[in-house]
Structure prediction request, 466 residues.
Amino acid sequence: MAEKKKNEWAEKLAYAPKNGYERLSAEEERAMHAYCEDYKDFLDHGKTERLCVEHCIELASARGFVPYEKGMALRTGDKVYYNNRGKAIMLAVIGEQDLSHGANIGAAHTDAPRLDLKPRPLYEEAEMAYLKTHHYGGIRKYHWVTIPLELHGVVVRGDGSTVAVHIGADEGDPQFIINDLLPHLGREQGKKPLNEAIPSESLNLLVGGRPLAGEDCSDRFKLNVLKLLNEKYGIVEEDLISAELEVVPAGKARDIGFDRSFIASYGHDDRVCAYAELAGIFDAKSPKRTAVCIFADKEEIGSEGVSGMLSQAFDKFMADLCEAQGVALRDCLANSFCLSADVTAAYDPNFADVYDKRNAAFVNYGVGLCKYTGAGGKSGASDASAEVVGRVRKLLNDNGVFWQMAELGKTDAGGGGTVAKFMAQRNIDTLDAGVPVLSMHAPYETVAKLDCYMTYKTMRVIFEQN
Ligand code: MN
Ligand code: MN
Prediction:
């Protein structure tokens, strides 16, 4: 009897989150699987920030979105987008109320950790041709050796014309690789700390091993690669200086597990939230307030740069929309709400000691709300208010969205940030939320399908809220 009484109190008073599969209806499960098939397709089309923008425009155009041009009249339900230099994009669905009531904003990023080519990448050594790389974002260098790699990007030629380069994704394409030491000779390397065993300057991509035929000169292996590049892309070595060529892991997104409950892929951070935003803004029913979906670039290197969230490109887009309605941008921003949609760390029992288990995000518990990110004493965090957390919590509960609270890990274990603080700086109430990820920033990251779907539902109710 005493035992029963205790449970009644617990039920009434205690917070006891449950695994999402204990609560998911069969109908929702079907919707979840359908959503995740579309998401995997998005991942396979979006290996770089540029490809994400291209694919986003394709999907949005098919749903009636048009490029916004300053001065365009805006009517309720109009769908517009602004392509920021092919590297970032913002979409808006114009609401019933004018922008003085504020906008509902989802801000995700579509750049992901990778290896960029250095400005002068090509050389030969020991009769093999290599491209030197410079990593972009936080990587663990030992992840990038001995895995198949693709190359994507653009080269601006001497005459100013641009040529796109995509090698390694199509069946039958060659791929690239960075080699590692064999264990037989790795005795000294094996004693080094993980972050020193593979130095940055050894992340050199193997791209050729055949000399230029019929010539008696030096650098024949490098020259043979240049000849092939010239034949295919019409480029010369100097053109590689005005290029953005990104080395990314090869392979497609795949279901993981006997029960197919996970998806592994390159770039879940943060395409899993970007796609949730996109699907959310596509599906949101006639929003009262204007809905804005952002794919930002440069988040992984601090959101700097003209395509990053610190750029005024966002403010210009919003100011142009406001101007069309005779509204001051500052009034719009002050009344806006932003979900900084970015991934969080999922509790990994294989590395239990870096997590505070009572405050960690767990796979299959739903979207992870993050009151603050940052490091140490919340340094670098925008630290959302109780009111902002309360607003989102109520919204998700009222709409049957599974959610959990999340901290990145133990306070002393490290830290990280998102674009949240750059939205908050603009006087926008902002909360971080996103999908918990296993092996975040690895070439192949893992997420749970249920959490992907709940993040989509989150974005949709954010865009539909008043
Ligand atoms: Mn991220
Ligand atoms: Mn990241």
